[in-house]
Amino acid sequence: MQSTPQKILLFGPTHAPYTLEVIVVDNASTDSTPDFVPTRFPWVNFILSDQNLGFTGGNNLGYRSCRGEFVYFLNPDTELVGDSLLQLFLAIREEPAVGIIGPRLHYADGMAQNNRRRFPERLTGFFESTWLSQLWPANPWAVKMHMLDWPDTIQHDVDWLVGAAMLARRTALEQITYPTTTSDTPVPFDEGFFMYSEELDLCKRIKSLGWRIVYTPKSLVLHYEGRSSEQVVAARHIHFNRSKVRYYHKYFGRFWAELLRRYLLLEFRWQLSLERIKYTLRHKRELRAVRIKVYTEVIESDFSQ
Asked: Which residue stretches of the chain are H helix?
């Protein structure tokens, strides 16, 4: 179901008009979105998918329909603040070597969400978003990846950005597209990553061709992170860690991917054991029962590809 997009004009400092095309992809939602959006916003190019294609598949579906020189990948759990989009556009337009640019991200409560990353090293996956990272939060691998040695108040180059809000140059995307069996149009995101690590992989491929990835604090986006993924906790853990292992296999090889997979499973087995002990001791048994079910499902997934 699609409608003719309206030409929305933005005006920059030189009062030059820019045309904006808005595309909304509905990833098999179960609410009233398919009825509401076309009625309330008839100028939006609304694309309805009959199945959940994940972050990568949904963005690829929208990409096939877009026609602009620049493509803004924007999560549904985000809110643009002020002239956020215009600031991103002006910044990337002035730098022809920039392939992707991203804004400052804040959570809904106003706290900053770090949106600057270096590429992970072989040991990073063991010390970032794991129990080891909680025991040693200042470990050098996590500090390096999150660029904590750089201030977030200045515009600078990064290796990759959080995928919640990324403005990309179409020329750069066209150089790293994949052919698919479902469409004649090549797409930029690797659909082997259902969700998580897909923006890391995208930026890795774009930067390998010489394009710059840039963070700018001039643009601000609110990110209500996790509203959709938190609805199914087990699925979030499975997708996050499965994608992590897949990235390691793709860039570091089978040995490191298998080592990381076994370690991550060991963590969840340890957490499952703790929850069972607490359940036996009658400590918040309802909560423990839910966690036992979740961790069991996560372990059974095996994080296999």
From this structure: 33-40, 54-65, 84-93, 124-127, 131-135, 140-145, 170-174, 198-208, 233-252, 254-280, 285-301
At residue 79, φ and ψ (nearest 5 deg) are -140, 125
- Quick one: CA dihedral 69, 70, 73, 78, positive or negative? negative
Of 194, 302, 298, the closest CA to residue 257 belongs to: 302
Ramachandran angles phi, psi of 138, nearest 5°: -95, 20
Residue 57 pLDDT exceeds 70: yes
Q: Give the tokens for residue 129.
A: 């978003």
Per-residue pLDDT of 171-207, as tens digits, reads 999 999 988 766 678 999 999 999 999 999 999 999 9
pLDDT value of residue 8: 46
**Strand, coil or helix: 167:** strand
Buried b (16+ CB within 10 A) or exposed e, 34-50: eeebbeeeeebbbbbee
**Per-residue pLDDT at 15:** 52
Sorted by where each starts, the structural domains of the chain and their CATH numbers stand as 8-116+152-230 (3.90.550.10), 234-301 (no CATH)
